[in-house]
Amino acid sequence: DNESKMYIVISTLWERNGDYKMNVWILYNADKLKKRMDGWNLLSRIDLDELMKKDEPPFTFPKTLEEFEYAFNEYGQLRHIKTGEPFVFNAREDLHRWNQKRYEALGEIITQYVYELLEKKCNMTKEILPVDATEDEPTGFIYLSPDALSNPSKLLVLIQGSGVVRAGQWARRLIINQDLNSGTQIPFIERAMQEGYGVMVLNPNENYLEVEKPTKSPLPSPTETSDEPAEKRERKDDKEGKKKKEFYEKYRNPQRETETERILIRENGSSEEHVLYVWDHFVSKAAAKNVFIMAHSYGGLSFVELMNQRELEVKNKVCAVALTDSAHNIWLQETTKSTQDWMQEHCRNWVSSPEPLDIPLEPMMPDCPRVSAGTERHELTSWMSFDSIFRFFSEFHAKEGEEAEETSNSVTTRSGSHKNKHQDL
């Protein structure tokens, strides 16, 4: 201002659904605050993050959909039981962190709900990883259809993107704000089963067990040398310490989030490791002659990494790969020329675009052809490409069948020719 006085200003900025919001608090004239605190060094002790949290309600949230007073209706949409309204993120104005924690708590319930759908609606079973896990080590899991390993014809492998989503989900935001069909893999699983596929649902983000960190006892501060008598110095330190503590406690947040550490799941500590592990222990051992893979976003990167590690095996067993807004990069991942050529023939990437569905797009790299997913929203690319992906798989399966038949006829003809020659002799 005109008097050149300084103020402490705290602002928070966040984005939700394309809208930006900002809260600004002018807390105090810093010049006056300096005098009142009797020392500017005290200001540096204020935890500004915690200052903004001081009026937050406790982070205690419902444990079930019913307790949240939400349920999925007949169209798979999440609706409030009493009002019929969609989920409201801002349950409490100006408490973004609390609202976010509430949203995450609901997300964990959604994860368990989708697991139940996989088991009860799709009749899939959970397979623990690692396969030789001991009782005292962290584990993950995938889901298998009853014929995933025994189906002699076709196997579909589903790989999701990165983030909070777990097995059976494409996007949590779609499940909560749109519907189950667009946000989960359930429609893909049901369609695949109807068309005679075995199905494997991977879980590439289940990489660790989160445990609470043990609390550390604070180390005693070293004694400073001073000319003051010990009793006087002690009274002075107590007085200053009490003053600082009272000021700090006035604004501190009583809710301290528990500090945690992550224990990685053996051989499944990342999406790439998980996909490779599942390939080695399940997909490569499946009876299916034709394996089809669908991978979204970071799942595409994990698939390309699998090709880097198991190129010949993948080429021999995989028939076709459908990618949706894949995050792979053949240059950064250093793929071979032979891998790039194979991807040109066997892969297709449905990407977010304003163009209509299936319209070919300009290639960005010499790998797989790119076509429009018919949407500009990244998380919707899988759902919008649903029918196109299964047509793509069917065309490849029919082509494989024709080639197998031609090979069989050729062998039969050669065998008959040799038989006739033998009879003539």
Automatic annotation (TrEMBL):
Chain intervals with Basic residues compositional bias: 416-425
Gene Ontology CC, one term: nucleus
Annotated stretches, region: Disordered: 211-252, 400-425
Molecular functions per Gene Ontology: siRNA binding
Pfam families, A to Z: Arb2
Lineage: superkingdom: Eukaryota
Arb2 domain span: 61-357
Compositional bias (Basic and acidic residues): 229-252
GO terms classed as biological process: regulatory ncRNA-mediated heterochromatin formation
Protein name stated in the entry: ARB2 cotranscriptional regulator A
Native organism taxonomy: Eukaryota, Metazoa, Chordata, Craniata, Vertebrata
